[in-house]
Design goal:
Blueprint (H helix, E strand, L loop, with lengths): L2 H11 L4 H5 L10 H23 L3 H39 L6
Helix pairs in contact: 3-4
């Protein structure tokens, strides 16, 4: 089952979790399974951090969860970029081969 059809089914059954929204699992222009796996794993971690952040009364723990979430978002960005980079470069080069210019 493709990610898009799975997401369409999930939307009719339930709302996305905080982690799924934060990691933007619905956006998948490359249809890359590695990209999807990274986002889903990060979404699970984000949900754990979000739950901890809401359950604790400690300001310090809330702050740690927020800092961890920020680092997780950045890690997800770089991880996804690392598995999709070759495709993006190939697509850009195809355009240049056809005479397009970079503005």
């Amino acid at each position: 089952m493709s990610i898009k059809s799975e997401l369409e089914q999930a939307e009719t059954i339930r709302e996305f979790t905080y982690g799924e929204k934060a990691m933007d699992i619905a956006y998948d222009p490359s249809s890359d399974s590695k990209d999807d796996n990274i986002k889903r794993l990060c979404a699970k971690i984000a949900d754990i951090l979000n739950k901890q952040r809401h359950e604790t009364t400690s300001f310090e723990v809330k702050q740690m969860c927020s800092v961890a979430m920020k680092a997780l978002l950045e890690a997800r960005l770089w991880a996804v970029k690392s598995v999709t980079w070759e495709d993006m470069v190939k697509e850009a080069l195809k355009g240049l081969d056809k005479g397009q210019t970079i503005d």
